[in-house]
Every structure is written in C-alpha cells, then in structure tokens.
Design the sequence.
C-alpha cells in the first residue's frame, strides 16, 4: 500500500491520517531532542545557575517519572475500552499536547529551582501520557507495509527541523519556535478529538483491517490468537544498547566545543544543512531497508557505524587535537542516529496488535530509550567529574558499540528456533 | 547470512580494535595557528595540511615534517628532515634542521644564519598536466582520457557477460525490480566504505585491507556499470544486428551507457546527483545479490 496506491484509490481519509501522524510525531520528536534534551539544560545552567550534577539529577527525575507514567498509561490503555478507540487515544494525546504547550510557554519564566522541579514533574506527566497515546495511533493511521516509510518521514522531518531550523540552543528561542508549531497542532488535535467529523469514523475503523491492526512480526494462529515472531525482551535490550551508546558518546561530544562548533552548532548554515540532509538520507535509507530486510541488518549497520564513528573521533583526538573535525564524522553520526530512530518508530508497532500496542510501546520506549538515556547521562557526568579524558571516554563508548555489534553477530549466528510467544512482554 | 556479508561485518571490529592503542605517531595540522613553545618537544611526525605552525627557539620537533599547505616558521630544532610539497617553510636565524630540506612546489625562506645539516634540494616547479595524456590539444586529451577510462570497463563488461551472464542478469533484475532497496543499500554501503577506507589508511597497519576494499569497490562499480550497460544494450538490440550476441550487446550497451553518463554529468548539480544515485543503485544491486550469485527476493508480509 503506497502513497500512489492511496491516491489512485481516492483514499483521502487514510492519506490524511498518514500525514497527521507523520506531522504530529515529527514535531513531537523534534520537541524531545531539542527543547527537552538541550533546552532544559540551558534553562538550568544559564537561567537558574544550577550545577551540572543538579541538572543531571533533575533529568533523571524526568526520566524516572516519565517511565512510570508511561507504563501506567500504557497498561491502563490496554485494559480499558477508551484506550483502544481512536477517539480515546486522540483525547489522551490532546491532554499531552495541551500540557506540553502550556509548559513550553511558561518554561522561560521559571526562575527558581523548586519551580523547575515542579515543571519537570508536570513535563514527565505530559510525556508519559503522550508516548503510549501517540505511538498507539500507528495502528489506526499507518498501514503495516508503510510503517518503515512513515518512520523514515517522521525521523527525516524531526531531525531536519532540529538540525537546520532549531539551531539556537537557548530555552527562550526553543520555546518561541516550538510554540509556532505547537499552537496550530493543538488546535487541530482539539478539533479531531472533540468534534465528530465524518471521515474520522473511517479512520477509527482502520485498525480492524488486517493491513493495519497487526504488526509485521505478528501472526494469527488458526484460533485467531496473536503470536509474536520476535523476542520482545531481546529487542528491548538491543534498543537499550543503541540509545546507551548514542547518549554516552554524544553527551561528551556536546561538552567539547571543537566538535559542536564545527558541526551541530556551526555558524555556517551550509554545514548545518549538510548534517540535516544526512539525517534525511539516513532516514530514507533506513525506511527502505527496514521494509525490505530483517531488522537485524539495520541493527548491525547502526552498531557498526557507531563503532566506526567513535573510532574516527579517537583517531582525530590523537592526530589533530584541537583542530576542526572533518565533516565525515558528524555525517556518519547523523546517519547512525537516523537509522535507529526509524527502527524505534516502527519496531514497537510491528511487534504489537491493536490491543497490545499501547503497553508494548510504553514498555519498549521506557526500558530502552529513557532508561538507557538516564543511565548514560549519569555515567557521562560521573566520568567527566572524575576527570576521564575525552579519548578514553570515546574508546569506552566504541567498546560498547563493538560489544553490542559482536553480540548481535553471535545472536544472529546462534539464532535458536523458538516457538513464537503469546504476544506477551 | 552468507559468508561475504560476514566478512564485511567483521571488518568493523577489526577497525575498531585499532582504537585501543593510544600512542599517536602523527600530528596532523589541518587549520589554525599553533605554537610549539620553548622547552617543548613534539615527538611525532608533523604533517601540515593547512594552517600555521610556529616553532620557537628552544623548542624541538623530534621527527620529520611534511608540509602540503600552510606554513611552518621555525626558530627551533627539527631533528628529522623537512619535505615541502606545498606551502611555505621559513627558517629563522636560530633554526636548526638535522636532516634534509626538500622543496617541490612549496616555498623556502631560509635565513643565511639558519643551519641545515643535511642537503637542501630545490626542484623546479612541477607542471602537473590536467590530463594524464598530454597531447597539447584539450579536445584530443579529453577523448583519449575518456577512452583510457572506458576501454578497460567495456572489456570487463564483455568478459563478465561472456563468462557469468546469469550473475549479470541477477544484478540487472535487482536494479529493475527493487531500485529503491538497491539505492538505499548502495548509498549507505558506499558512504561507510569510503570513510572506512580513509580510517583504515590512517591506522597504517590496515592499509592493505583499505586497498582490498578499494579494489572491491572498483570491481563492484564496474559490475554495476556493466549491468546498466546490459539493460541499455537490450533496449538498443532490436536496432542492431546483434540479437543473439549477449556479450556484444553488453559491450555496446556499456559503451553507450558511459557516453550517456558523461553527457548527463555536464548538467550542473542534477547531473552529478543523478550519476551518484545511479552508481549507488548499481552498487547496491551488486551487493544485495552477492555479486550476482543470489537472486534478491523482496520480503513479503
């Protein structure tokens, strides 16, 4: 089911659903990687004068609360009727978007540490509700066959926005720029969630169709019971590794001006455009390859590229310390990040049914994304405080990437013939 | 997963294993101004790609210096030799060079009081022809250069079509049936391979592996161009008296394809982008069919 097929079949509601989902998730992810990951650090350091370790503590609080809220929301959605209907999901998404829009608006006005903590808790509530609610819309809007491409479009949009448009890493600028996107988005989602529109009835029924409801790695037995063809725990572990390796390396590079000022924060817009274009290229390649091959292929690419790029940074530190880095380094980094983001957007839906997607997504994102990011942030700050040199830090990250790479090779080679699980995590 | 893919994957750990050794043998200067102050010793070889290096009196470079661009201004002691392939070497009155000073197209400014204990060799300015075959006429040069590149390729395509027609057909099928998958795989593989070749070259010990990867890349590109040639040849075949001569069809098709690609490259921006996309797709087709040994079957739900 391609876009052209949808146009030829005059399936305008389905096309609208795809567009809405891609747009919503793109802005949401760009918000996460800029406003949350970079903006809050700026707010804490520059405006509130907090120490790096205190900010790390607040970010840990955000990660833990978000995990908890997401797991609760996901479980509740799976057990309740409203969590399985399009209207119910859209209303939950509305709660999340409303809260996030308000929080974004007030963020630059936060002046005390206690207000910052309250802001963090409220943000975790918004994010925790938002993740299972929005990810579970995949089964309503995106046909199974197109999920890799949709994930590619989301990733390309989010990272292009983050790399090319949202380039001034200050909370005030982030807030102003994000609100331009969030306010119209909030208006649209309010309309869709609360006004009964005729075409939404069509979208609400889509998850009953075989092409939408069950993920790519789900099969039905003769009794109609769903069976998952992948080990969810293994996927969570691999995705944990991906997020961990990325965050552990990038958090340290973020503190190294020579690498940031000549790449992600380069004054030359051509360089930022180049990095944005590489994100788009990586995302498109990942979308196509995810659809065409097993996900293991992409995981090998991701860990392989991360190992290579950290080796390049280590070599650069040895041979030309203090020099501006060749663009090949951020280029490969951007490609690796886009590859795994695409997998993250498509994978959880592909091991789920319409009934289990909210819980599976919450568990997947909470235990791989946030736990890994929290742990790697804590570790990176600890190493930096202990005076670990950048080269050693990057060598360790490289070793982690290699370890996962080799473990994956062994896993593929030693793939046991296991009976599919009963769709349980 | 079959053997060839495993070999490619295993290159990554081999490469990254080189990261464990933290002793650096080369100081690479690519930009900016740098100072080696009095009392300091730069132990490693200095390679100046660009930028400026000042060596103060009392400072030492314990190894050789290679200047490709930029400049080195020395008032200190260089224990090795200095090769000025481009850029400028300025030796101040207190400068001492234990080895030779050789200059190609680079500039030498040596104070009469500076000491060079080896030889000073100045070669006249090199004239690098813009074509390997310099006949004096730019048009003739261009034609000859085109033939130098194209003749080995069409011979390769002919031999490929003659000895392994089925393999070539599988690559053609992959290009026709799954161009997006081939393109995505090929572009990703080519980008990573290019970077990996450079990184391997920097580790020195992996230069032979880098050369092997490079040779494999050239073969894959030739294979891809031959596949395109076969496809184009088949289109042209009804107009040629060669209906049953598969290798000849491939040969003529490849020649025609190279002509078309050369013409397309003249179009600014779009031309190069199209050639890169075609190359990526072709190389991707060669890789996902394992050099044509397996038919690529698209995944179905």
Sequence:
């Amino acid at each position: 089911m391609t876009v052209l097929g949808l146009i030829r079949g005059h399936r305008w509601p389905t096309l609208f659903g795809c567009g809405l989902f891609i747009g919503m998730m793109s802005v949401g992810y760009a918000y996460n990687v800029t406003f949350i990951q970079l903006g809050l650090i700026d707010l804490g350091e520059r405006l509130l004068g907090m120490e790096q370790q205190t900010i790390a503590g607040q970010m840990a609080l955000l990660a833990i609360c978000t995990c908890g809220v997401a797991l609760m929301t996901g479980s509740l959605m799976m057990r309740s009727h409203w969590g399985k209907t399009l209207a119910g999901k859209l209303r939950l998404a509305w709660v999340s978007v409303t809260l996030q829009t308000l929080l974004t608006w007030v963020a630059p006005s936060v002046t005390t540490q206690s207000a910052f903590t309250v802001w963090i808790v409220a943000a975790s509530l918004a994010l925790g509700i938002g993740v299972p609610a929005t990810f579970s819309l995949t089964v309503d809007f995106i046909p199974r066959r197109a999920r890799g491409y949709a994930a590619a479009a989301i990733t390309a949009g989010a990272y292009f926005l983050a790399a090319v448009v949202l380039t001034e890493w200050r909370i005030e600028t982030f807030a102003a720029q994000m609100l331009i996107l969030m306010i119209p988005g909030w208006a649209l989602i309010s309309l869709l969630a609360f006004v009964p529109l005729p075409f939404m009835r069509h979208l609400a029924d889509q998850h009953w169709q075989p092409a939408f409801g069950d993920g790519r790695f789900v099969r039905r037995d003769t009794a109609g019971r769903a069976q998952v063809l992948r080990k969810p725990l293994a996927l969570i572990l691999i995705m944990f590794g991906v997020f961990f390796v990325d965050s552990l390396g990038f958090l340290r590079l973020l503190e190294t001006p020579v690498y940031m000022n000549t790449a992600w924060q380069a004054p030359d817009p051509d360089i930022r455009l180049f990095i944005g274009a590489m994100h788009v290229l990586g995302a498109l390649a990942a979308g196509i390859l995810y659809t065409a091959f097993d996900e293991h292929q992409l995981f090998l690419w991701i860990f392989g590229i991360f190992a290579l790029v950290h080796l390049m940074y280590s070599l650069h530190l040895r041979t030309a310390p203090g020099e501006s880095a060749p663009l090949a380094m951020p280029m490969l980094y951007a490609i690796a990040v886009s590859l795994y983001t695409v997998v993250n957007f498509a994978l959880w839906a592909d091991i789920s049914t319409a009934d289990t997607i909210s819980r599976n997504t919450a568990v997947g994102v909470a235990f791989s994304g946030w736990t890994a990011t929290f742990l790697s942030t804590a570790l990176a700050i600890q190493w930096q405080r202990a005076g670990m040199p950048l080269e050693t830090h990057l060598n360790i990250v490289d070793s982690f990437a290699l370890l996962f790479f080799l473990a994956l090779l062994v896993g593929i080679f030693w793939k046991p013939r296991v009976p599919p699980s009963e769709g349980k995590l | 997963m079959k053997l060839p893919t495993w070999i490619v994957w295993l290159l990554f750990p081999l490469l990254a294993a080189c990261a464990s050794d933290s002793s650096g043998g080369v100081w690479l200067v690519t930009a900016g101004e740098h100072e080696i102050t009095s009392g300091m010793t730069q132990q490693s070889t200095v390679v100046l790609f660009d930028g400026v290096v000042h060596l103060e009196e009392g400072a030492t470079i314990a190894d050789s210096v290679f200047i490709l661009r930029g400049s080195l201004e020395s008032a200190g002691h260089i224990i090795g030799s200095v090769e000025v392939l481009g850029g400028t070497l300025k030796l101040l009155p207190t400068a001492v060079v234990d080895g030779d000073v050789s200059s190609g197209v680079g500039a030498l400014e040596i104070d009469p009081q500076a000491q060079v204990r080896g030889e000073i060799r100045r070669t006249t300015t090199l004239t690098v022809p813009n074509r390997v075959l310099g006949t004096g006429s730019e048009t003739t040069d261009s034609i000859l250069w085109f033939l130098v590149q194209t003749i080995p390729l069409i011979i390769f395509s002919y031999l490929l079509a003659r000895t392994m027609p089925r393999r070539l057909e599988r690559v053609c099928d992959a290009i026709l049936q799954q161009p997006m998958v081939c393109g995505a795989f090929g572009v990703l593989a080519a980008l990573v391979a290019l970077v990996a070749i450079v990184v391997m070259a920097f580790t020195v010990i992996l230069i032979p592996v880098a050369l092997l990867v490079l040779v494999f890349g050239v073969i894959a590109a030739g294979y891809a161009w031959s596949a395109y040639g076969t496809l184009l040849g088949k289109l042209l075949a009804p107009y040629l008296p060669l209906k049953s001569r598969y290798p000849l069809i491939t040969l003529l098709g490849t020649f025609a394809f190279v002509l078309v690609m050369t013409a397309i490259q003249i179009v600014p921006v779009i031309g190069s982008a199209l050639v890169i996309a075609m190359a990526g797709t072709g190389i991707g087709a060669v890789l996902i069919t394992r050099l044509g040994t397996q038919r690529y079957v698209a995944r179905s739900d």
